[in-house]
Design brief:
Oligomer: heterodimer
Shape of chain B: globular
Shape of chain A: globular
Structural class of chain B: mainly alpha
Largest interface: A-B, 29 and 24 residues
Number of helices of chain A: 21
Number of strands of chain A: 2
Helix content of chain B: over 70%
Number of domains of chain B: 1
Order of helices and strands of chain A: HHHHHHHHHHHEEHHHHHHHHHH
Number of strands of chain B: 2
Distance between the termini of chain A: 28 Å
Strand order of the largest sheet of chain B: 1-2
Number of helices of chain B: 19
Largest sheet of chain B: 2 strands, antiparallel
Strand content of chain B: under 5%
Structural class of chain A: mainly alpha
């Protein structure tokens, strides 16, 4: 392998690495203005995003493509056990990760420009995103778990980087302890699988299927992996940490965690469990011995994950109903959304995988956007409670309408991307027939439930009268005591542009979803056919 | 040929948005849009290719069809497909008429008029969309799109108990829509249809086993039955009607209830014949129950609006009965009944609203002797009541006559049940008129005056149509029977 053929495919990752080094170097020479570091990182994410989109076969950008098309979705040679491979679904996820990171980086340039932690924040943001890109190319269990660890460590620090915030530190501590537990469980599961199969390459494991001397190890290994990875995507009952972390972290970091890093868990689920779900789904007769009985791995894994999915969406939605604080409500709704995405992996067919990926795409836009709006509103001096947002819609029509669109999309109202993604996902569940139809029913009932708490926020924002001394208006003109007022009514250019962009994309892809749905579906088809 | 349906959709969409932003001029924008909509509907009638001798269209049996790919995946083909047949055409005409009548009637609305008129336009847009959609997703989008504006109309402009009524309306119909959506998706995927288009689903669903068809039919029926509404899913309707503002009530009774009947005919009865056949006895039982229940409860009502609401349930029961007969005459009767009920219930709800404006109450027993102080209001209410109880030469008569004829043809002496109930219906309308319109004046304020011109004009339009279609029902019948389904006499 020449160095050129190695560098080419990893060009997006190298761009990010270079940007991270540059940001840290600038910190050393005391160039710390948020416009500079933020600009560098946003640009790096933007360039990397274009490179990945070009690799996906987007014709107008074909000249940027750096991965030979023969390497994408290539079927691995017999006997080869590579650490990484380029699948088009992996590239789609890379694009989604970069999109989330780009949006967060762009929006956070609107923080006060003399903030001290800016280089650290952006450096860590880039490193976390780098790890996420590596997750999306993994085909080896150890490579995958190490890449997840890169993301995790960077995100622990991101939560804690504003050192003076006690809540942030507490959240980071909690995040770290739970994250360590999750890592231990995952690696233990991986070691059991290694014991069973003698390899950690997921392709080889998939091909071996049931042909192993000790199937009980396989069952236990997958069990521990489910638990370890479930922490990452906040499946109920592994979800309790998420709300405190999203709540305590700085707003931009919450946006990145909920909109971005959480999705590595989804992709990891795709990678690890698609094999057993697909290949062992029909391995009825032999089964796996456990406690003297016989368990068919594929169906029981499907059933377990299916129960977790339904539990996750229901518990997330019910708890979201009870919340009084905006950020905590969004955190719980984010948990319930993970339940919807799980439907894709439970079913394991190409349509379901495509639907789940579209749901991830929609969620990147909606959740990143929602947390960014929350950050913007908090920066205007509005309190954390939902009732503090009274009358915001009429006083601040831009924020009100944008946030309203995001909530409508989260609720799955037609003509938003959130409706299309849920529609495709639930269609895929019905398409798969059998008991999967009940997943669609559960998902639909849950989205009906979720309409209630999203609509409540809309009511508060648009129908209720604002509180007497209106902080949303005061924040824009404060100036004297606090930091200087920002342009665009105190929002700042970066934040205003990001929120507007997200709102436009939500409607655009809601009306014409084919633009993203086509590539996502063909990627999912390849992923399933190569995987199986 | 002009893509007329898309042009109408665009007209309504632009008109709706413009109304929302028109401030105090909203009523003018709404009126202009409604007039254009009515003219375009007339064009749709003139160009209707269901008339004998026309060439076939994109979707067999439908006129003015358009189809564009919207979402295309290996396993999922969704198109923007629209078109009309005789049944949808008649209901579109009803939409246009009621829209214009409601806008004129509500001319005096001063409480946030932009929102009020905009939401009414949006409701009509959604109804029009439901009547023209020939793709399952498109149908569902419009179906849901009707829900939201009506929720706000009730919840913001409604009576004292409006929040409860709005939420009840939303929850009932939304849960029903979800069950319906699962049914529709299952219909596509279990039948192996190549796309979400009506024609594809129609062709593929024939291959389903009767058992599967029955389950699918029940799921779809549940969704439509709540909208209909059918006993025992009807309890949202009286609450919603009583609390809704008059314009909202008119659209709710006149149009929204028709969505259930239309959906049942278009997406369930036609598509799942075996399922329909298996469910027929159940439908008869439910229909008779609804007819009796709605009528008996009307007798017990003291609130004028609630009375009209329960009589709507009674009429919808007759519609369900006519559909359940599974004969072409029954189907004709069902569509005629829906049209007639749309006009007449609109008229009666307007009357109830005017009574409430003038006299400050809708309590029948505390009202009396309206006629001397408000002769035209009394005339309109009388026309509506007489049409509703089926007086010949008014629109209710041909519709109900056809329905009873069809029932006699298929069920024989069972027709005695709806006929007997008709006597009850006549009784409560006569009691209401005798009590409220005539007799000694009660609760008549000193400054009592007749209808304002706009309320009179809105109701007058409907009265004229009641008479016109009562004398010449053939205007509608000719369109309906040229629908290419079920071996109509005309095809």
């Amino acid at each position: 392998m020449t160095i050129g053929s190695f560098i080419g495919p990893f060009l997006p990752e190298l761009v990010l690495l270079a940007a991270a080094l540059l940001v840290f170097l600038l910190d050393v020479v005391k160039v710390r203005r948020i416009e500079v570091t933020g600009g560098i990182s946003a640009a790096a994410f933007g360039v990397a995003l274009l490179l990945v989109v070009a690799d996906l076969g987007f014709t107008p950008l074909a000249f940027l493509a750096s991965i030979p098309s023969s390497q994408i979705d290539a079927i691995p040679a017999v006997g080869a056990a590579p650490l990484w491979a380029f699948t088009s679904l992996g590239l789609v996820f890379q694009a989604l990760f970069l999109l989330a990171a780009f949006l967060v980086a762009l929006a956070s340039t609107s923080r006060p420009s003399n903030e001290r932690g800016a280089p650290i924040f952006y450096g860590l943001l880039i490193l976390a995103t780098l790890g996420m890109l590596l997750v999306a190319v993994a085909v080896d269990l150890i490579f995958l778990l190490l890449a997840i660890e890169v993301v995790s460590i960077a995100s622990y620090l991101l939560v804690a980087y504003a050192r003076k915030e006690r809540r942030g530190l507490e959240a980071a501590m909690k995040f770290f302890v739970i994250g360590a537990l999750s890592t231990v469980l995952s690696f233990f599961g991986a070691s059991l699988l290694f014991g069973a199969y003698g390899t950690t390459n997921l392709d080889v494991i998939r091909a071996a299927g049931t042909a192993v001397p000790d199937p009980t190890l396989v069952l236990l290994g997958y069990g521990f992996l489910v638990a370890g990875l479930a922490f990452k995507i906040t499946l109920v009952p592994f979800h309790a940490w998420a709300v405190d972390v999203y709540d305590g972290a700085p707003d931009d970091v919450s946006a990145f965690l909920a909109g971005g890093t959480k999705k590595i868990g989804i992709f990891a689920f795709f990678l690890v469990f698609l094999g057993p779900v697909l290949v062992l789904g029909s391995a009825g007769p032999s089964g796996y011995g456990l406690f003297g009985g016989s368990v068919a791995l594929g169906p029981s894994l499907q059933l377990t994950l299916g129960i977790l999915a339904v539990l996750t969406m229901t518990v997330g939605n019910v708890l979201a109903l009870l919340q009084k604080e905006m950020k905590r409500m969004l955190a719980y709704s984010s948990i319930s959304q993970a339940g919807y995405m799980m439907i894709g992996i439970v079913i394991g067919t190409a349509p379901a995988l495509g639907g789940a990926t579209l749901q991830v795409f929609a969620h990147v836009l909606m959740k990143t956007g929602a947390f960014l709006v929350v950050g913007a509103v908090a920066a205007l001096g509005v309190g954390p409670l939902i009732s503090d947002w009274r009358g915001l819609g009429s006083r601040r029509p831009f924020l009100g309408v944008a946030f309203g669109l995001m909530l409508l999309s989260l609720a799955g109202v037609p003509l938003t991307v959130g409706f299309v993604s849920k529609f495709v996902l639930f269609s895929a569940a019905v398409h798969a027939q059998g008991w999967f139809v009940w997943l669609a029913v559960a998902g639909l009932l849950n989205s009906a439930l979720s309409v209630y708490y999203y609509a409540r926020v809309l009511k508060v924002m648009f129908f209720d009268a604002p509180p007497a001394p209106d902080p949303a208006l005061a924040g824009a003109v404060v100036g004297a005591a606090g930091p200087p007022a920002l342009p665009v009514g105190g929002l700042g250019y970066g934040r205003a542009a990001t929120i507007a962009l997200i709102a436009v994309l939500i409607v655009l892809f809601g009306i014409y979803p084919q633009a993203v749905l086509g590539p996502i579906q063909s990627a999912a088809n390849h992923f399933v056919s190569v995987g199986a | 040929m002009l893509p007329l349906i898309s042009i109408i959709l665009a007209t309504l969409a632009v008109g709706t948005v413009a109304t929302f932003f028109a401030g105090t001029k909203a009523r003018w924008v709404a009126l202009a849009t409604s007039v254009v909509f009515l003219l375009e509907t007339a064009l749709l009638f003139l160009g209707y290719s269901g008339w004998p001798g026309y060439s076939t269209s994109l979707v067999p049996g439908f006129s003015d069809t358009e189809s564009y790919s919207w979402i295309s995946l290996p396993w999922l083909h969704i198109n923007y497909t629209v078109g009309v047949d005789g049944i949808s055409l008649v209901l579109i005409l009803l939409t246009a008429i009621l829209q214009i009548a409601t806008v004129v009637y509500s001319w005096g609305e001063t409480h946030r008029p932009a929102g009020y008129f905009g939401l009414m336009m949006l409701t009509c847009l959604g109804c029009f969309g439901v009547f023209v959609a020939l793709d399952i997703l498109l149908f569902f989008l419009f179906w849901e799109a009707v829900l939201v504006p009506m929720f706000f109309l009730i919840g913001y402009w409604g009576g004292p108990n409006r929040r409860y009524a709005a939420i009840k309306f939303f929850v009932y119909t939304h849960v029903a829509s979800i069950v319906m959506l699962v049914g529709l998706l299952a219909l596509v995927f279990y039948s192996g249809a190549t796309s979400f288009d009506f024609s594809a689903v129609y062709a593929a669903a024939r291959g389903l086993s009767p058992v599967v068809q029955t389950f699918l039919f029940l799921a779809l029926f549940f969704g439509f039955a709540v909208k209909f509404p059918i006993v025992p899913f009807h309890t949202w309707l009286p609450d919603a009607h009583v609390e809704a503002p008059t314009g909202g009530s008119v659209l709710l009774a006149g149009l929204l209830l028709k969505l259930g009947g239309y959906g049942l005919i278009r997406w369930a009865v036609e598509v799942l014949p075996s399922g329909f056949h298996a469910t027929q006895p159940l439908l008869f039982v439910i229909a008779f129950l609804t007819i009796i229940w709605g009528s008996v409860l009307s007798l017990a009502q003291r609130d004028l609006k609630r009375l009209v609401a329960y009589s709507s349930i009674n009429h919808m029961g007759i519609v369900l009965l006519a559909i359940a007969l599974n004969s072409s005459l029954g189907l004709l009767a069902a569509v005629l009944l829906m049209f007639a009920h749309g006009i007449v219930s609109g008229l009666l709800f307007m009357g109830a609203g005017s009574v409430h404006h003038q006299y400050g109450t809708r309590d029948i027993s505390s009202l009396g002797g309206i006629t001397p102080s408000a002769p035209s209001l009394a005339t309109m209410i009388m026309a509506g009541s007489l049409a509703s109880l089926g007086l010949p030469a008014l629109i209710g008569f041909p519709a109900e006559f056809t329905a009873f004829l069809a029932t006699w043809n298929d069920l024989g002496y069972w027709v005695m049940i709806p006929l007997a109930v008709l006597v009850v219906t006549a009784a409560f309308y006569l009691w209401m008129m005798q009590r409220m319109l005539f007799g000694p004046p009660r609760a008549v304020p000193a400054d009592a005056h007749d209808l304002p011109w706009y309320e009179g004009a809105g109701m007058g339009l409907l009265v004229v149509l009641t008479v016109l279609f009562g004398i010449l029902p053939s205007l509608l019948v000719n369109v309906i029977v040229n629908s290419p389904i079920k071996g109509w006499p005309g095809t």
